[in-house]
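Hi V.,

Quick status before I head out on leave. The structure for the redesign project is tokenized and pasted below; the design run finished overnight.
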């Protein structure tokens, strides 16, 4: 939608993906999202995104579109995890921390310093 390519959308039906293909596709999508979010600045969240949905022209604020992306991620990740569990396979991702960039183990001193600063939630 962001690049107005909604008309190129096709449903993923037909021959099932092999496990390696699914993993590679997941990594490709994750990288696209990560690159986009890393370039995003706070002021950019108020930009309008224009797109075509069949015969209608529409617009949405980027901030609202991102909420939709998060909702979709939760929905589809949950569906995939349920399918993996039904097949007695441990899902590759069940939380945010295994794949997030910039995560690292720190000392207790560094932890206390960060907790005392205003940079943390």
């Amino acid at each position: 939608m962001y690049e107005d390519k909604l008309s190129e959308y096709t449903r993923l039906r037909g021959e099932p993906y092999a496990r390696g293909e699914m993993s590679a596709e997941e990594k490709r999508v994750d990288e696209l999202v990560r690159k986009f979010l890393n370039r995003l600045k706070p002021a950019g969240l108020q930009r309008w995104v224009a797109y075509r949905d069949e015969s209608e022209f529409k617009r949405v604020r980027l901030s609202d579109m991102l909420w939709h992306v998060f909702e979709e991620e939760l929905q589809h990740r949950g569906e995939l995890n349920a399918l993996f569990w039904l097949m007695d396979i441990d899902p590759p991702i069940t939380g945010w921390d295994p794949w997030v960039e910039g995560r690292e183990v720190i000392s207790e001193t560094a932890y206390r310093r960060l907790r005392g600063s205003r940079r943390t939630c």
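Above is the designed sequence. The chain has three helices and two strands.

G. will cover questions while I'm gone.

Best,
W.
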